[in-house]
Write a structure and sequence with these properties.
The protein is of the alpha+beta class. The protein has helices at about 30-35, 90-95, 100-110; strands at about 5-15, 15-20, 25-30, 65-70, 75-80, 85-90. The chain has one domain (about 5-110): NE0471 N-terminal domain-like, CATH 3.30.2020. It is built from 3 helices and 6 strands. Strand 1 and strand 2 (about 15-20) form a beta hairpin.
Length: about 120
Protein backbone atom coordinates (compact mmCIF):
# COMPACT_ATOMS: atom_id res chain seq x y z
CA UNK A 1 0.00 0.00 0.00
CA UNK A 2 1.51 3.34 -1.01
CA UNK A 3 1.52 6.31 1.33
CA UNK A 4 -0.06 9.52 0.09
CA UNK A 5 2.27 12.51 0.01
CA UNK A 6 1.46 16.17 0.41
CA UNK A 7 1.65 18.38 -2.66
CA UNK A 8 1.09 21.51 -0.54
CA UNK A 9 1.31 22.42 3.15
CA UNK A 10 0.28 25.99 3.94
CA UNK A 11 -1.50 28.26 6.35
CA UNK A 12 -4.96 29.12 5.07
CA UNK A 13 -6.23 31.01 8.12
CA UNK A 14 -4.96 32.00 11.54
CA UNK A 15 -4.33 28.80 13.50
CA UNK A 16 -5.13 26.54 10.51
CA UNK A 17 -2.87 24.41 8.31
CA UNK A 18 -4.15 22.99 5.03
CA UNK A 19 -2.53 19.94 3.44
CA UNK A 20 -3.33 18.94 -0.13
CA UNK A 21 -2.43 15.34 -0.91
CA UNK A 22 -1.29 13.71 -4.15
CA UNK A 23 -4.47 11.61 -4.24
CA UNK A 24 -6.66 14.74 -4.24
CA UNK A 25 -7.61 14.62 -0.57
CA UNK A 26 -7.49 17.84 1.48
CA UNK A 27 -6.85 17.97 5.24
CA UNK A 28 -7.49 21.11 7.27
CA UNK A 29 -5.90 20.98 10.69
CA UNK A 30 -6.46 23.41 13.53
CA UNK A 31 -2.97 24.19 14.88
CA UNK A 32 -4.05 23.11 18.36
CA UNK A 33 -4.97 19.66 16.99
CA UNK A 34 -1.57 19.30 15.32
CA UNK A 35 0.05 20.19 18.63
CA UNK A 36 -2.20 17.75 20.52
CA UNK A 37 -1.21 14.73 18.45
CA UNK A 38 2.53 15.36 18.55
CA UNK A 39 4.31 12.03 18.79
CA UNK A 40 7.60 13.14 20.36
CA UNK A 41 9.02 11.51 23.50
CA UNK A 42 7.80 14.41 25.65
CA UNK A 43 4.23 13.96 24.45
CA UNK A 44 4.01 10.16 24.13
CA UNK A 45 5.52 7.62 26.53
CA UNK A 46 8.23 5.82 24.58
CA UNK A 47 7.65 2.50 26.35
CA UNK A 48 3.88 2.28 26.45
CA UNK A 49 2.88 4.51 23.52
CA UNK A 50 0.36 6.27 25.77
CA UNK A 51 -0.06 9.95 25.03
CA UNK A 52 0.80 12.34 27.84
CA UNK A 53 -1.41 15.14 26.50
CA UNK A 54 -4.98 15.15 27.73
CA UNK A 55 -7.42 15.46 24.80
CA UNK A 56 -8.61 19.02 24.48
CA UNK A 57 -5.93 20.41 26.80
CA UNK A 58 -4.06 22.39 24.15
CA UNK A 59 -5.43 25.96 23.98
CA UNK A 60 -7.07 26.88 20.67
CA UNK A 61 -4.84 29.97 20.66
CA UNK A 62 -1.76 27.83 19.89
CA UNK A 63 -0.50 28.46 16.37
CA UNK A 64 2.18 27.19 14.00
CA UNK A 65 4.97 29.72 13.53
CA UNK A 66 7.31 27.61 11.43
CA UNK A 67 7.16 24.52 9.26
CA UNK A 68 10.09 22.62 7.75
CA UNK A 69 10.40 19.41 5.78
CA UNK A 70 12.25 16.50 7.35
CA UNK A 71 13.72 14.48 4.52
CA UNK A 72 11.10 13.32 2.06
CA UNK A 73 8.83 11.68 4.64
CA UNK A 74 7.77 14.22 7.27
CA UNK A 75 7.44 17.78 8.48
CA UNK A 76 8.32 19.51 11.74
CA UNK A 77 6.18 22.30 13.14
CA UNK A 78 7.23 24.97 15.63
CA UNK A 79 4.33 26.17 17.77
CA UNK A 80 3.70 29.41 19.62
CA UNK A 81 4.01 27.50 22.91
CA UNK A 82 7.66 26.90 21.82
CA UNK A 83 7.14 23.16 21.29
CA UNK A 84 9.10 21.90 18.29
CA UNK A 85 10.15 18.32 19.03
CA UNK A 86 7.57 16.43 17.00
CA UNK A 87 8.21 15.01 13.56
CA UNK A 88 4.96 14.45 11.70
CA UNK A 89 5.32 11.73 9.08
CA UNK A 90 3.01 11.82 6.07
CA UNK A 91 1.41 8.64 7.42
CA UNK A 92 0.79 10.23 10.84
CA UNK A 93 -0.69 13.40 9.34
CA UNK A 94 -3.03 11.42 7.12
CA UNK A 95 -4.04 9.12 9.95
CA UNK A 96 -5.02 12.08 12.13
CA UNK A 97 -6.84 13.99 9.38
CA UNK A 98 -9.83 15.58 11.12
CA UNK A 99 -12.25 15.47 8.18
CA UNK A 100 -15.46 13.46 8.62
CA UNK A 101 -14.41 10.81 6.10
CA UNK A 102 -11.04 10.11 7.68
CA UNK A 103 -12.38 10.12 11.23
CA UNK A 104 -14.93 7.53 10.15
CA UNK A 105 -12.20 5.36 8.62
CA UNK A 106 -10.10 5.64 11.79
CA UNK A 107 -13.01 4.50 13.97
CA UNK A 108 -13.55 1.52 11.67
CA UNK A 109 -9.91 0.37 11.90
CA UNK A 110 -9.32 -2.37 14.47
CA UNK A 111 -5.94 -0.90 15.47
CA UNK A 112 -6.46 2.70 16.58
CA UNK A 113 -2.89 3.14 17.86
CA UNK A 114 -1.15 6.13 16.27
CA UNK A 115 1.58 5.50 13.73
CA UNK A 116 4.94 7.22 13.31
Amino acid sequence: MSISRPTSIRRTAPREIRIEWDDGHVSEFPASLLREFCGCAKCVDEWTGVTRIAPGSIPVSVDVIECEHVGSYAVRFVFTDTHSDGIYSWQRLRRFCPCDGCRGEARARPDSKAEG
